[in-house]
Specification:
The chain has helices at 2-5, 22-33, 75-84, 103-116, 158-167, 187-195, 213-218, 234-244, 251-261, 269-281, 298-308, 344-356, 372-375, 378-386, 402-413, 422-439, and strands at residues 9-13, 36-40, 46-47, 50-51, 65-68, 89-92, 119-121, 127-130, 148-155, 173-178, 202-207, 225-229, 264-266, 289-294, 314-315, 331-332, 336-337, 362-366, 396-397, 418-419. It has 440 residues and is α/β, with parallel strands linked by helices.
């Protein structure tokens, strides 16, 4: 499996000299990120300054990985070509296989690959990304590729995967795989590989269809796995079949099996990102009691309503006596209301007290960043937050747009997530609290 993520020599079959073509963009990305990149196209002599080869077997150097982007009918013969060169791994970007009814063509490709001992990711995919090296096989350009981080992404959909990859730029990515039709290497084998990957701490998955649900869940590694399942309805199942040729399973059975084996099921793309962020950046809570602290109580009321409707969270019985360092105008309850007069010092004193409170498992600071006393002391706030005890998870909430996004970036630099909608933050915390209980 290492040949997919850390190859030394990469052949791009179907490389193109024409900007805007898929083969051009793939080769450009591979050339920029692999130690050795070889364009393969019998119609060209030079691509992006590199000698172009008529076939993989004509390449003089060693080839660990072939990335294939040619019409589907040509792929089986290219497999044989790679076999003659002893290439151990292929990523087939090309579509036009099982997802459009060409199951025989996909099986022919797979049979030849097995005869040569070649492993295949795809077809009908965008391939891989290694956060540690930047190596990628994408045909997209101008992407905001994240640096190295603790989250691995497995996805049947390249489009969903690219969206998640970019939104996870604030967390960092260990490995990314778009596996498309999963003719050979599937999610079960990828999960096994990631279980032994020291750079991966959380796995985020987008799943359309599962061929063997029992085997999938039995392969879950001993790290958090968050799954977004598509194809939940009759319409979704039809769309999944035409997209990756996947047969979508019954959603209720999927959720039940996930719960039994400790996988966390996200209900939306946003929740998939929220859960991955929270699990990657914060410790698991010891329980589900939540304490809120704020300089503007309205969003806390929304959060309290949402907490009341959860299964695994409750409002903590905050010890008012422990909040003795707060000013007289503060309301010592839950939420701890510092009012609009709150400064960074008030927040830090309150948060430290909540860390010491035995009935508090989760701390939710709510911020109105534009309130002048807080705004004027934001640097002090961030210096203090960076020194916090990491024994309890902290999930911050703030409503707003551009300025809030800037503060979100600053908080993420110290490993603290910010979600801009109270109920959305509560939903993520509820699932994390369930997962923490399942692990116990």
């Amino acid at each position: 499996m290492d040949a997919f993520f850390s190859p030394d020599g990469v052949a791009v079959v179907g490389a193109s000299a024409n900007p805007g073509k898929i083969g051009y963009e793939i080769f450009k990305n591979v050339l920029a990120s692999a130690p050795n990149a070889y364009p393969v196209n019998p119609s060209s002599e030079v691509i992006l300054g590199e000698r172009c080869y008529p076939s993989v077997r004509d390449i003089s150097g060693e080839v660990d990985l072939a990335v294939v982007a040619v019409p589907p009918k040509l792929v089986p013969d290219i497999v044989d070509d790679c076999g003659e060169k002893n290439v151990p791994a292929m990523i087939v970007i090309s579509g036009g296989f099982k997802e459009v009814g060409n199951e025989g063509l996909e099986q022919d490709m797979l049979s030849r690959a097995r005869r040569h001992g070649i492993r295949i990711i795809g077809p009908n995919c965008i391939g891989v990304y290694n956060g540690a090296t930047g190596f990628n096989t994408f045909f997209q350009r101008d992407m905001e590729l994240p640096g190295q981080g603790p989250v691995a992404v497995l996805t049947q959909s390249g489009t969903v995967g690219i969206g998640l990859l970019e939104t996870c730029s604030d967390i960092g990515i260990s490995k990314f795989v778009s596996y498309g039709n999963a003719a050979d290497v599937d999610e079960r084998e990828l999960l096994s590989y990631l279980a032994g990957d020291p750079t991966t701490e959380v796995i985020a998955m987008y799943v359309e269809g599962v061929t063997d649900g029992r085997a999938l869940f039995e392969k879950l590694p001993d790290i958090p796995v968050v799954m977004l399942k598509a194809g939940r309805t009759a319409s979704g199942k039809t769309a999944a079949a035409s997209h990756t040729g996947a047969m979508a399973s019954r959603y209720a059975l999927f959720k039940g099996a996930a719960r039994q084996h400790g996988a966390i099921v996200a209900e939306s793309f946003e929740e998939l990102h929220d859960l991955a962020s929270l699990l990657a950046l914060q410790p698991l809570p010891r329980g589900g009691s939540v304490a809120m602290i704020t300089n503007g109580a309205g969003p806390c009321v929304l959060a309290a309503d949402a907490i009341h409707e959860t299964r695994h969270l409750r409002l903590a019985d905050v010890d008012a006596a422990g909040l003795k360092e707060l000013p007289s105008f503060a309301i010592r309850g839950n939420p701890v209301d510092l009012t609009g007069s709150a400064t960074a010092g008030h927040y830090l004193a309150g948060i430290r007290a909540l860390f010491e409170d035995d009935d508090v498992d989760i701390i939710m600071p709510f911020f109105v960043f534009k309130d002048a006393p807080l705004l004027d002391t934001l640097d002090e706030l961030y210096r203090g937050l960076a020194l916090l005890d990491a024994s309890k998870p902290v999930m911050t909430v703030a409503l707003g747009s551009r300025f809030v996004a800037e503060q979100q970036r600053r908080l993420l630099e110290m490993g603290i997530p910010l979600i801009s909608e109270p109920a959305r933050a509560v939903a993520a915390l509820d699932k994390v609290a369930w997962y923490a209980g399942w692990r116990r």
